[in-house]
Amino acid sequence: MLGVPDLWRLIRETDFESIRRDAERPFQVLLVGADLAEAETLGLMLSGGHTRHPWLLPATPEEARRRAGAGLLDVALLLSPEPALHPELLALGGVLGAARVPFVAVPLEMPALAEGLLGAVPAGVRVALARHLPPLRGLLFQKLIEETARANALYALTTGMAETVPILNVPLNLADIIVLTKNQLVMSYRIALAAGKRGTARSVMGEVVGVIGGGFLFRQAGRQLVGLIPGAGVAPKVAVAYAGTHAIGRAVAAWADQGQRLSAAALRRFYQEAGARARAVARSLISEARTRRPRWRRKKTL
Fold first, then answer.
1. Domains of the chain and any CATH numbers
2. What is the pLDDT of residues 17-43, one digit of tens each?
3. Residues in contact with 121: Cβ distance below 8 Å, sequence separation at least 6, in sequence order
4. Which of 110, 220, 244, 245 has the fewest CB atoms within 10 Å, i.e. the most exposed one?
């Protein structure tokens, strides 16, 4: 079973420093509108206040073409009310593409702006964007939680299939606890940084553990041992990995963004609410695994 010393060892061994550097990096986002007024409006919406963030750069299409080759842009947003780009913006897209600047066309509405911007940049840049642009945070939290929950579920499925070999059962289950908990801690740290938390990795993670409760982490680790129960199958293990990760992510997001310190009952509720989705994810992943397995290996039921 994972204990407090093991938890702090995991924190020490994880490269939180590189995650922090990514989150604190500067960025340049080019905002292109038919005129500067439109681009400025876009900047204010993304900044979430009355002042545009200085790393958001409004430009007309002509100005954007001049900036494209500077090698400093992380992404360009092309303001377009219609899915089909205006010929001037279409030509600009060719210039940006040649300069290897990612770009996406977006309407002037917040959900689409957030989805387009976060979808156009690498994972390391997303946290930096949300850290400085509060309107992006809610969507980024959702993405980080879902991505990590699914990754943990897939990992649990992969090792669960190997655990059908009895001699591997115990060591693989214990390894699962370490890997899944580490993924949950990294997710939690990224959420905290995206919400603007400051301090050393140890101090921030100390707060995270205090918020979700070491006891919840340890109970979650204990649930992973379901793989040791003869005949339990792989599905419960996959569902537990997904639901536990989802619950932890929601709890950390509520604390980091809204200052809420949740009770043990609230954490249990998050876990239960993720249950139905977790079972559906488990069924989907197992079905995909069965489809991909060679015929000669399909004799054993997952």
1. 25-132 (3.40.50), 133-297 (no CATH)
2. 999 999 999 999 999 998 899 999 999
3. 74, 75, 102, 129
4. 110
What HEC string does 61-83 produce? Answer: HHHHHHHHCCCCCCEEEEECCCC
Residues 69-78 have a mean pLDDT of: 94
- What is the side-by-side strand order in the sheet with 103-106? 56-59, 29-32, 75-79, 103-106
| Nearest to 21, CA basis, from 127, 122, 101 | 127
pLDDT tens readout for residues 144-159 = 999 999 999 998 888 7
Closest Cα to residue 198, out of 27, 10, 9, 24? Answer: 24
pTM to 2 decimal places: 0.85
* Cα–Cα distance for residue pair 141/127, rounded to 1 Å: 9
- The identity of residue 191, as a single letter, is I
Q: What local confidence, expressed as pLDDT, does residue 116 receive? A: 95
